[in-house]
Automatic annotation (TrEMBL):
<keyword id="KW-0238">DNA-binding</keyword>
<feature type="region of interest" description="Disordered">
    <location>
        <begin position="97"/>
        <end position="140"/>
    </location>
</feature>
<feature type="domain" description="HTH arsR-type">
    <location>
        <begin position="4"/>
        <end position="98"/>
    </location>
</feature>
<dbReference type="InterPro" id="IPR036388">
    <property type="entry name" value="WH-like_DNA-bd_sf"/>
</dbReference>
<protein>
    <submittedName>
        <fullName>Transcriptional regulator</fullName>
    </submittedName>
</protein>
<keyword id="KW-0805">Transcription regulation</keyword>
<dbReference type="GO" id="GO:0003700">
    <property type="term" value="F:DNA-binding transcription factor activity"/>
</dbReference>
<dbReference type="GO" id="GO:0003677">
    <property type="term" value="F:DNA binding"/>
</dbReference>
<feature type="compositionally biased region" description="Basic and acidic residues">
    <location>
        <begin position="112"/>
        <end position="133"/>
    </location>
</feature>
<dbReference type="InterPro" id="IPR001845">
    <property type="entry name" value="HTH_ArsR_DNA-bd_dom"/>
</dbReference>
<dbReference type="InterPro" id="IPR011991">
    <property type="entry name" value="ArsR-like_HTH"/>
</dbReference>
<dbReference type="InterPro" id="IPR051011">
    <property type="entry name" value="Metal_resp_trans_reg"/>
</dbReference>
<keyword id="KW-0804">Transcription</keyword>
<dbReference type="InterPro" id="IPR036390">
    <property type="entry name" value="WH_DNA-bd_sf"/>
</dbReference>
Amino acid sequence: MGMSDDRDLRRAAKLFQAMADPERLALLLRMAESEASVSDLAAFSGAAIGTVSARLKVLTGAELVVRRREGQTIIHSLADHHVRELVENALAHATGRECGPASHVPGHHTQSGKDEMADHQHHHDHPHVHGPDCGHTAIKHNGHVDYVHDGHLHHQDGDTVEEHVIPVTDKNPAECTAENPPKHEAGHVHGPGCGHEAVPHGDHIDYIVDGRLHHPHGDHCDDHGPVEIVQEAAA
């Protein structure tokens, strides 16, 4: 990688300055799941709309977030996939975890449905051994059992742990279901710390709710089909 000029370095430094705040970082994580209005983000963070707007102004000024108008509402989303990868890599470094499969840039879905076994990678330096009663939610997936672990889908293969992804299929589609949204707690917004387990599905992240995949999408959730849970997480 060649040396960047001073202008590029200043722009990069501005990115890190904007991210150097836990509350702004949390907003980026929320927008990594789906685009959102200021009201959505305020409900997610529990902060006042004015406070959230101020944080968004910093993120927008650093070119981490972009805006678009939808009727009378301003919708915010991550600027591009680099932002998501930047946040994921920062958190992976901070927690000592490997990055999982890259998720989608908000607002974009795919129906291509990659072959699952072509869409996994090894998870190195993983001391925990998954199995019955290991404490993690287990789901039946592609003829075997995988374990939901910190937003990743782990498959124990001997001494090796593989990162798996639930493929996009007729059973688990990735389309919008705004006209037929899933049953959902009133006012609940999915995101980090929402109380539901995150799991990679296709090129995005879904949340397991009563054995079904929920995907936050604007002002509603999409129903991305069922998963067969064979072991509940330890309380």
